[in-house]
Amino acid sequence: MIALGRPALAQNAFFAGPPGAEVEVEADRIFYAWDKQLLRLEGHVVARRGPGLLRAASGSLDRAHGILKLEGGVLGVQDRQVFLADAAVVDLNSRSAELTKAVLLLKDRPANPDAPRSGANTLILHGAHVRQLERGRFLAENVTLTPCDCAGDPDYELLARTAEIGDDRASLRGVHLRLLGATLPLFPLSLPLTNRQSGLLAPQIGYGGPVGFTYAQPVYLTLGRSYDLTIAPGWFTGGHMHQKTLGQRSIKGPRLGLEERYAPMEGTSGSLALDLFYDLDQHDPAGTATAGRGYGGLRGIAHLGHRTEGGAGVFAVQGLAASDVMALRDQAAQSVENSYDLFTTDLGFWRARGPLTLGADATLMQDMRIVDGNAPDRRLFGADGGRTFQRLPALFAQLSPVPFGPATFALEASAVQFARFGEPTEMERETGFGPTDRAVSPPRIYTDASRAPALRLDLAPRLTLAAAPAFPTELRLEAGARVDGWIVEGYPDRDRTRAYALLGARAAMPLERRFGSTLHRIEPAFEVRALSKPLSSGGPPFGDLTDGGGRDFRPMPDAAQQGLTAGGTIAGVPAARRAYDEIDFAAPATGAVEATVSLSQSLWTKSGRTAARILGFDLLQDALLWAGGAKARLGEGSAVASARFGPGSVDGSIRYDWSEHEVSAFGASAGLRDGRGDEAHASVGMLRGSSSERLRAGIDELFSAARFAVAPTTLTGGARAGASSPLPLGLRLAYDAYYTPGDTPSTFANLVHVGVLTLDTPCRCAGLRLSASLPTHDLRALGGPQFSLLIDLKSLGSMAAF
Q1: What's the whole-model pTM score?
Q2: With DSSP H G I counted as helix, E B as strand and the rest as coil, what are the percentages for the chain, rounded to 5?
Q3: How would you classify the pairing of strands 96-107 and 81-91?
Q4: For range 350-362, the mean pLDDT
């Protein structure tokens, strides 16, 4: 081994080493020509400087000029860089190098000199000629590079005439993209080599509906180590219909997406996203006098999320808000989110110490219901949006079950203020129904039936006694109470107090028997709960599920009108007696004794150490034993079944109303999948509106003791069927049809066809999704198809799209 001293210069180039580091050279045989100061190296040549390492079969070292030449399969390792080359020339004075037929492997972490090929690669580059520049940069010619660390061929490759590679970016010229066997020309690129680098993201492209053709170009910006921002300017070209009614609207104009993400410290993170657009078609239809959409045409949606966890407690915010009721519906395809009746923003702080949790929270709400489908636009801020009640603020305490002798004790307590930012309409005062309540010609019989701001205090203790786990039967007894008080601002005659007791019991007996490798499990269970008639004083109840509607409160558990829209023979419950939240209707004013009987069966099989359920069948029957003013009755009975067999699965459920002798709800789904990846699926769900038993009960009930005052409607719902299959080149084609049966308006899309083509690559570093949907009514197209395209290519060193 020979150690050669060199001038100490601060460098970060390949094979530079730390200041003052010597170059150490090893070889099986070293021949030194004294007159030329030349060393000839043969056999297992190893050169080291600091953390840098070079290996080769042979080479030479020119001490006079500081030139190290290596041949016969060169391997270089320093930090995250690994080089493979046929030959290398290293200038030890300038800390530069040139490599012939080189391969650069950029690791996701510092490479192991003893096993340099091990570990994941964030970049693989092949170059006919690679030259190291100053400051650790490399210039490669005629290169092929990919971030795909695949065992076989990469999912995609970038071909470039030149590539200049630094510590955190790769700048490419003369670029082509090789994807799915095709080679496509691209513009010059500057791509990140680390997970967080500013640059372009994949464009967002879509077509169809009110927005027409839409394009947005996101730009990703890093704002230090803890913040980043995505800015996405774009444009809506607009639809071809220019009406204000649903399904015939046009939205045209510039759009701007903003999303900030942050994580400034451990335990704190969040994001704020704004989707803004200026609606140039705000006054459609042309020639009519309209107030315009949004605020001078400016419209948008905001998403907010934040969470901080620390020793003091947890603070969290999660919310969604819109400028107007159509802002999301106009620019987004039909989804669960844009069908919500309420947009909510929840924020809260809580601190847990042992079993006790103390906290405060608030909920801000926007009423997203459409009043008139022919004129659906309604602003959600200012006078139009201030009528919705908000839950702010609220203080709460929760004591999770703690031992109390042989039993456990739990407690919940809260103090909540309900208020709104605006004033009720004259219609709400005189009829008890606001514009979004969809009441049909309600009579004006009230002096003031509007909902008023209120403060509610609530206390709910619980005591539970359970049998020991070793006891063969599961037994549990429960006793508790709830005490409430409402103080209504400006209406002392509505102030109210309520107190009631709760008793309950549950018994279950799980039984099991083995049949070879199959386990049969059956569990009969019985549960009963008694709710006393409340002791109350003051005004009428708030949100009582047995409210019979009309001017004065009357408990009518067999003909309740709470939640029904006024019209015809239904007087409805005025706003002054409706619930502020779910605690108001925790139990009926009539009291109740309810029972449920259930039988659960399942078959389990075991393969190795994994157990799987192959069959399931559950039965449940409700029974109302007593309620003041109501007859004892059998409630709804339900059955749920599921089966798993080889490549398929089947699930189904049904609910039957014994009083009405009608099926109140049913649903079913099935699916098949083979080893190649072909799959087919189908599902259906139907619900009978205004069924005799409510689907939602009070929080202290087993099921609802109230029945609606109207006859059940027909079953309504929807069905879906589809299939998908893999195609060559890693593609998958999927088709789904969504059908809504029954009589629907001619402008309603009761059958929607959706086709999706996706790219499913072996290494998961390239993604493509092309979707098309066609809304129809009884096979008659409603407008043209709607398209969207998403391209996602793993960027160099990250999983972001470029």
Answers
A1: 0.77
A2: 5, 55, 40
A3: antiparallel
A4: 96
Q: Which residues make Cβ contacts (< 8 Å) with residue 41, sequence separation at least 6? A: 25, 27, 29, 30, 58, 59, 60, 61
Contact call for residues 440 and 565 (beta carbons, < 8 A):
yes
Classified as helix, coil or strand, 328 is helix
- List the end-to-end C-alpha distance of the chain, in Å, as a whole number: 48
Are 274 and 260 in contact by the 8 Å Cβ rule? The answer is no
Distance from C-alpha of 675 to C-alpha of 681, rounded to nearest angstrom: 16
d(CA 730, CA 726): 7
Which range (256-265, 564-573, 785-794) has the least confidence?
A: 785-794
Other beta carbons within 10 angstroms of residue 602's beta carbon come to 17
The closest of 752, 750, 754, 749 to 788, measured between CA atoms, is 754
Q: In this structure, how many other beta carbons lie within 10 angstroms of the beta carbon of residue 544?
A: 28
Question: Is the confidence at residue 5, as pLDDT, over 60?
Answer: no
Q: Could you tell me if 140 and 117 are in contact, meaning their C-beta atoms sit under 8 angstroms apart?
A: no
For residue 560 the two structure tokens come to 């309740």
Q: Which residue has the tokens 């558990």?
A: 557
Given 2.60.450.10, 3.30.360.10, 1.20.910.10, 2.60.120.1600, which CATH number is that of 2-199? 2.60.450.10
Average pLDDT over residues 347-352: 96
Q: Which residues does residue 130 pair with via DSSP β-bridges, in sequence order?
A: 99, 140
List, for residues 500-533, the tens digit of each pLDDT value: 999 999 999 999 999 888 999 999 999 999 999 9
Amino acid at 432: G
Regarding beta strands 731-739 and 715-726, do their DSSP bridges make them parallel or antiparallel, or are they unpaired?
antiparallel
Alpha-carbon span 582 to 194, nearest angstrom? 49
pLDDT at 246: 74
CATH 2.60.450.10 residue ranges of the chain are 2-199
Between CA 406 and CA 471 the distance in angstroms is: 15
Residue 10 phi/psi, 5-degree rounding, is -75, 115
